[in-house]
Specification:
heterodimer, A: 350 residues, alpha/beta, four-stranded antiparallel beta sheet, 12 strands, 29% helix, globular, B: 323 residues, eight-stranded mixed beta sheet, 9 helices
Chain lengths: 350, 323
């Protein structure tokens, strides 16, 4: 796998350094914090919104990862930091040995040919005054593919890959002439056009119709497998996760509280919040109407003043007084590859 | 007010309801000959893809029409009396909000940002039930307790409430006149998972406590099963299948319903989800035969003719396979 990588080293000489610390991972995130400063009257300091707080993980080549969480849990801030749209407050995002924080504008340009971004709302993500051909050419013009025929060739190839055939019928079309599913295909095609190494998909199907969702997810999964892409799939819908990714991270109030393989997480969920999420996800079954769901009381905490200790403890029914509300739980390993940040799983005697 | 006595009266009967919109390309047949019934204290779920006319159906039932209506016909019987014959003033006075109310789509953004939540929730009670302000406010308070919003939120403004709270306020507003029917248009689609489950619990509790009926309009099949007693599947402006939820969710009849059910990703079980190829037809010039025929895996020669509604085991399905 990593053999393919050699040709992608950047043209910028300042970047070719230290590919060592990356231990074979494509992307490696360490102690990442993304805080936004709040200001009073435009200048006085009024605290921070701790959108992402102490997040670390690695993404291997060709691996699909799902980040699951409710709105406001910081998953979009995490994604935007990975895309180098936000600067981390603390910690590092290292892509193939290059710290994103240290890339200059040339380096960032290179990085953005390496990453594809699939937006949530396809209609909002496509410029309404550009034809499909122009939408797909734009990244190549910026990314340095100057030969027009080569560009057309790639557009043809990518559109075929997202199954928009015959290609000629779509090239001249504008976004409003396409259905929601087709628009999302164009967005996916655009993210693929620079032949990236990995793709960040931010709720790629939440704006689409139920009947089209599975089709788009299968398409993305197919592309991931055929191109050996790494994918970070951000979603709030646990039921689609198992068809799409190998590992799941559950995020709550700016922290990743549980990491596991998909099957492991569904079989053996540990964190009380994960349990609540799973219990709240319904399958189509008429018997659901006869029972009430158990939902933890309250709402996610403010990220300006998060509760001390475990951030879920005010809503948790298994809270251990004197521990959960005082100390932040570290990651405990339940089985290899399955980590949970919850004091209930602390090893015996600790 | 009408008087009603006999027991076989349904809460709502919709017969051959049509709602066409005028456009420059011709009339859009958003709701095209819809029939269904709803009993007291029952919930019917109307399922369908976007653009199949389910929101238009809600508007047609409540007569909340835009200006470009080309045709609006059929019968709507509420408690046995045909409300289509009422004039606008009588409909507003006797039907809208006093018998049926609406929780609009994205209801949390439907609140007026410059009025206190309590005043907005109390307003229907003042207008439709002639209550004094203080009395209406008390009713609003009671409804807030019912939907699980702290009472002191009544004097706050919408921006001070979270999305789930605002959604609950919108439900409280629909409840404040104690109507027998509430139409919910995608009540949970913009909300988080846990909030969604919470709202569903609130709706169930209200149904048990007040004997309210619901029409739940949604494309989220999994969540809809939380509330459904009956299911109606809508495709291209028509209802293609109705039946009770128990049997619908285990064995849908119409090929479209089957495909729709197969496209639901499930958390439990091993079934791989499938998808429906193709796109729904344009509602400006819908095909003459069965509207699903072009995407149907089991189509045959008869499908060129418009299928009537067949009855099978008390379920109704608009498909030639069941003739």
């Amino acid at each position: 796998m990593s053999g393919v990588m050699t040709e992608t080293s950047p043209k910028n000489p300042s970047l070719t350094a230290n590919a060592s610390g990356s231990n074979g991972a494509l992307l490696s995130i360490k102690d990442l914090r993304v805080w936004f400063e709040l200001r009073k009257f435009g200048f006085g300091h009024a605290g921070y919104v701790r959108a992402v707080d102490d997040v670390s993980f690695d993404v291997a080549y060709g691996e699909a990862i799902a980040v699951v969480g409710e709105s406001g849990c910081g998953k979009s801030s995490l994604m935007k930091t990975i895309l180098a749209l936000y600067r981390p407050t603390q910690g590092t995002v290292v892509y193939q040995g290059h710290d994103l924080n240290q890339l200059d504008s040339k380096g960032l340009k290179w990085y953005r040919t390496q990453v594809g971004y699939v937006q949530q709302d396809p209609y909002g993500a496509l410029p309404p005054f550009m034809s499909v051909q122009r939408i797909l050419s734009e990244p190549m013009v910026i990314g340095g593919v100057h030969d027009k025929n080569q560009r057309l060739e790639r557009i043809n190839k990518v559109l075929e890959e997202v199954k928009m055939t015959p290609v000629m019928d779509f090239l001249g079309k504008f976004p409003h002439m396409l259905s929601g599913g087709q628009q999302q295909r164009v967005v996916i095609a655009r993210s693929m056009i620079m032949e990236p190494k990995f793709i960040v998909a931010d709720e790629p199907v939440s704006m689409l119709d139920a009947s089209v969702r599975v089709e788009i997810l299968k398409l993305l999964r197919g592309l991931q497998e055929s191109h050996n892409l790494s994918v970070i799939y951000i979603t709030h819908d646990l039921s689609t996760v198992r068809y799409f990714s190998e590992r799941v991270f559950v995020m709550y109030a700016g922290k990743i509280i549980e990491k596991a393989q998909v099957d492991e997480l569904l079989k053996n969920p540990c964190h009380p919040y994960t349990l609540a999420l799973l219990a709240a996800t319904s399958d189509p079954d008429a018997r659901n109407a006869l029972t009430f769901k158990e939902v933890p009381p309250g709402e996610p905490p403010s990220l300006v003043k998060p509760p001390p200790g475990c951030r879920f403890h005010p809503r948790c029914n298994k809270m251990i007084p004197g521990l959960c509300d005082v100390q932040v739980p570290p990651d405990f390993s339940v089985t290899p590859g399955h980590d949970v940040a919850c004091w209930l799983f602390r090893p015996e005697g600790a | 007010m009408d008087t009603f006595s006999s027991n076989d009266k349904k809460l709502l009967q919709v017969k051959n309801l049509k709602l066409y919109f005028r456009t420059t390309q011709g009339p859009v047949q958003a709701v095209d000959g819809v029939d269904f019934e709803l009993d007291y204290n029952r919930a019917v779920v109307i399922l369908g893809e976007s653009g199949c006319g389910k929101s238009s159906l809600a508007k047609a039932i409540l007569r909340l029409l835009p200006r470009n209506v080309a045709e609006y016909s059929g019968q709507i019987l509420v408690d046995g009396s045909d409300v289509m014959t009422y004039d606008e003033e009588r409909f507003r006075r006797d039907v809208r909000w006093s018998k049926m109310s609406l929780v609009p789509q994205a209801a949390m953004n439907a609140l007026n940002p410059v009025l206190r939540v309590g005043d907005q929730v109390a307003e229907p009670a003042i207008i439709h039930m002639g209550m004094k302000k203080a009395e209406a406010f008390k009713t609003a308070q009671k409804m807030f307790q019912n939907v699980g919003v702290p009472v002191d939120f009544l004097v706050r403004y919408p921006f001070e409430l979270s999305g789930g709270m605002r959604q609950r306020a919108a439900i409280a507003m629909a409840l404040v006149t104690s109507p027998s029917l509430i139409i919910l248009d995608e009540p949970t689609s913009a909300l988080d998972l846990l909030t969604q489950a919470n709202i569903m619990n609130v709706l169930k509790r209200i149904k048990q406590g007040f004997g309210t009926s619901y029409i739940l309009i949604t494309h989220d099949i999994s969540t809809s099963s939380e509330l459904a007693d009956e299911v109606a599947v809508m495709y291209a402006g028509q209802i293609v299948e109705t039946g009770d939820a128990m049997r619908f969710f285990t064995s849908p009849l119409h090929p479209y319903s089957q495909k729709l059910m197969a496209s639901v990703p499930r958390l439990r079980g091993t079934q791989q989800p499938d998808f429906i190829t193709g796109q729904p037809p344009s509602l400006i010039n819908p095909p003459t035969g069965c509207r699903f025929a072009a995407r149907c895996p089991s189509r045959f020669s008869a499908c060129d003719q418009d299928p009537p509604v067949f009855e099978k085991e008390k379920r109704r399905v608009k498909c030639w396979l069941y003739s």
